[in-house]
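Lab notes, practical 5.
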Amino acid sequence: MDPQVQTSFIPKKSLDIGASNRGGGFGGLVFLIALLVFIASLVSAGGVFAYKQYLQGALASKANQLKLAEGAYDPKTIEALVTLDDRLTQAKILLNSHVAVSNLFNFVSTQTLTNVSFSNFSYTLGNDGSAAITMEGVADSFSSVALQSDQLNANKLLKNVVFSGIAVDATGHVSFNLTATVDPSILSYSEALQGGGSIATPPSTSAATSTASTTTQ
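Output from the prediction step:
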């Protein structure tokens, strides 16, 4: 037998083929991952494009609706409505700030006792709508003056009620001066309307003095 004749038929490169196969499997996995990432990118890009188209369509639709709404109203009508709203607002401001002096006279007359009368009435309006009033009064006795003081001080719509200058004249009547602050609700024209009270035209200064003297005797 020839000693150089090879008796084994098993290939010597079988291990090299296995290693080659393992390297090919790793490369396939990388390719698969890259392919999935590419597909995901395409899907994301398509979604962004579709959403952009949706937003553009919605914006165009809203703009068209706004244009139709603007066309439904006449510009002159809109201008007239705005002017009317401004006038109503100004009228409301004037109404809330208007003073009904007649209410003040009515209030004083209801708080004046039978044996007391007032004259020389004057008032000064405050920034908060209240009024500082000053009057000269005459009573038949000191007791009447004391009772009148109690009457006015017990009223919650009056503050800072002060009697001063009390003196007795030759006829035995007691004269005095009165100052007080009247609550804004007494002078409010709008509250008088809401309350259903009658609002009279404010009288002149001379007539006011005469009215106060007449109604309080």
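Observations recorded by the TA: Residues 61 and 67 are 10 Å apart (CA to CA). The chain has seven helices and four strands.
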